[in-house]
Each structure stands twice: as structure tokens, then as C-alpha cells.
Automatic annotation (TrEMBL):
This is Helix-turn-helix domain-containing protein. InterPro entries: UCP037266, WH-like_DNA-bd_sf. It comes from the Bacteria. It comes from Aquipseudomonas guryensis.
Length: 101
């Protein structure tokens, strides 16, 4: 990964990769959990989830049986052209670039 100052495009791209990884790994599968894991505001988390489709990452919301009011979790059904193993191998650099703990 380049060490130059991150552009808005790069940070947006890596934020999407990191959110997809958090969901796929089971580390954060709800908007509140994503907010806690990253410190991003609710709207940013929601916008990032919506933008995963732009990378052909298939992310769906699974409603919990018998629950109401969007009780459920997100899951990644397919990573599309993104290499999940590359994301996992570069998590430290991705978190650092984004300023996440």
C-alpha cells in the first residue's frame, strides 16, 4: 500500500473494504456495531453500507425471524472482484490509513 497522504477516493475505497471485512468476519454486523468499531457517525456507516454495491460487494440485511423494526444483521454474500484475503492481510495498514483503532 502506498504511504503517501491518502486521497478522498482512497480513504473512501478503503473504508468500504474495511466495513465489508468487519461484516464478513462477524466483528461488526449492525450499524451500531460498525459505529463502535470505527468511530464513524451513523450516516457515514449507512452510506458506506449502501456504497458496497458500487464495488460489486453483495451485502444484504438479514431480518431476524419474528423481529420487527429492522432487527437483524448485515452479511456479505459475495466479494465480487475484491480479494478478501488481500484485505485481511492489509488490515493494519487500512486501519492506520483510516485512523481507526
Amino acid at each position: 500500500m502506498p504511504s503517501a497522504e491518502a486521497s478522498k477516493t482512497r480513504t473512501s475505497f478503503y473504508r468500504r473494504l474495511y466495513v465489508a471485512w468487519l461484516i464478513d468476519s462477524g466483528s461488526a454486523t449492525t450499524v451500531p456495531a460498525l459505529m463502535a468499531a470505527t468511530g464513524m457517525p451513523r450516516r457515514t456507516a449507512q452510506d458506506t453500507l449502501a456504497a458496497l454495491a458500487e464495488l460489486d460487494i453483495d451485502c444484504v440485511f438479514s431480518q431476524h425471524d419474528g423481529e420487527r423494526n429492522n432487527a437483524g444483521h448485515y452479511e456479505i454474500r459475495a466479494w465480487g472482484p475484491i480479494d478478501r484475503a488481500w484485505v485481511a492481510a492489509h488490515l493494519t495498514q487500512i486501519r492506520s490509513l483510516l485512523g481507526y483503532p
